[in-house]
Specification:
2 copies of one chain form a homodimer. Chain A contains 4 helices and 3 strands. By secondary structure, chain A is α+β, with helices and mostly antiparallel strands. The longest helix of chain A is centred in the last third of the chain and has 18 residues. Chains A and B meet through helix 1 and helix 4 of A and helix 1 and helix 4 of B. The structure holds a DNA duplex (30 and 30 nucleotides).
DNA sequence: ATAAAGTAGTTTATTTTATAAACCTAATTA
DNA sequence: TAATTAGGTTTATAAAATAAACTACTTTAT
């Protein structure tokens, strides 16, 4: 392939947005990510699971007072994958 | 949305590779695109159709001697869409 | 001349993905 | 106490990507 493969886990608008967000803020909760990305809760829930299963983010579910709270944080593996994705896609963008 | 939407037609590894290719060479045939992208013929056929239906490329099917030949060329609309896509995705890549 | 293999694709079927809609549990407000 | 809101998850549906099978013809070997 003349074009490097793009990590399918990151080549998704919502998951890429989530990663982009997490990289800049280091930690964010479900509601904040939902607001910033404009995603529906259901979709976000599913995509966070996928990123988590891939080991790209750590998800922490706990209670804050009486309310459930889910916070997310990018892992080193996630950071590496993101950087690699950026390098790969740059190849497609500048001919 | 804090993140600009990514044109779904271009946010596909193969279609993006095809566009990237066509932009640099201005015109290419089916076999060449297949080789350069590493795509299977079936997949490429489908994706070229989509790009063509969207008006992003012009597809010309003719005979060269006794063999069928399909050549593709990016349109102005395709060029515009590609440039717009590049701008949008840059937003995701550098936090 | 004819069978086998190659070229240039298209069509159909399957799998994966993305997304929305419905649902759940608990807390708050009217 | 009944409705609404918050913070999600699960299930169902629609859309996409991909591979496999097929078509139609050409070239090569026998």
């Amino acid at each position: 392939m003349a074009f490097k493969a793009l990590d399918p886990l990151l080549h998704s608008q919502l998951r890429l947005a989530v990663m982009s967000l997490l990289i800049s803020v280091e930690s964010a909760d479900f509601v904040y990510i939902k607001e910033q990305t404009g995603a529906t809760a259901g979709n976000l829930s599913v995509q966070l699971d996928k990123l988590s299963t891939a080991g790209y983010i750590d998800v922490n579910k706990h209670f804050e007072g009486k309310k459930p709270k889910t916070t997310c944080k990018v892992t080193q593996a996630g950071l590496d994958a993101f950087e690699s994705y950026v390098k790969s896609i740059q190849q497609y963008l500048k001919p």
